[in-house]
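Hello, quick one for you while I still have it in my head. A protein chain has come my way and I'm curious about its shape. Can you walk me through what the tokens say about the fold? No rush at all, and the record is pasted right below.
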Amino acid sequence: MVYYYCPHIPRPVGGIKAIWQDANFLNQLGYPVKILQLHQKPTYFGLEKTPYEILKLEKYPIIPNLKDDDVIILPDILPQYASYFNCVKVEFFQGIIFSQTDRNFNHLLSNSKYVTEWIYEQFKKEAITVRRFIDTNIFKPKEKVPGTIAYMPRKNNRVVKKVIENFQREFEFIPIEDKTEQEVADILGKAEFYLTVAYPEGFNLPPAEAMACETIPIGFDGLGGREFMTPANSIVVDNMNTYALLEKFKYLKNVVKEQRDKMARLGRVFVEEIYNEKKVKADLTNFMNVLGIQK
């Protein structure tokens, strides 16, 4: 049995979404998988029914009764838990902020090419890459509202405030915070641009979802976003260079509609081609093969 150990975070977080998405796909593929969910199942992503067990904790950590050949997948924020398990252990890296890995892990799992390369540079260890899935049936373009820019205020809010202070007369800024997946998709679908300022990121999911909505990202790639944000589909400046970002905004309204439409279409085409269900399931099948897990 494969167990995903899932923390409880009472707000929409991409890392939680990734755990449930991967478990759902493995379940569909016929692999024995179960989620060990702390406290309660998240409801904001509209996730499918995967077998799970709610863990009510008095104190950390809880130690399920696992067999030696079971697999426990721990998120990168909990590497210290590895020593509490005697089964096969996998650390799931979804970023580079938590830059420590417990040597007790048997395998390392990564959510992007960038993170896989970073793990090797830092620890001289190979990681298995499972790309992220972008549901283009949910994240899709709608009728665009001219001059609208969506953003998420949770990270680097100082940069967001600086941009809004300087350009709130020229553009309408629409915050995305504590929304369901469908609500996020609706906002992104109508916006012309998505302001991305998160840094550092292992994958940088929101601008990829924006691209699926034919909404052009403008801002920082967050390192992980280099996998999909290019000059052909995004307006990118050096990470944390607020001055360069403000300069880009000065000329944003001068980008002709034909150029915006082309960039937007190219962004969606890229996401459809790279982050689709078929390729994610192929990555997960390879992951199971490496672990020696049979259906």
About this structure: The chain has a mean pLDDT of 91. The chain has two domains: 2-132+276-291, 148-274.
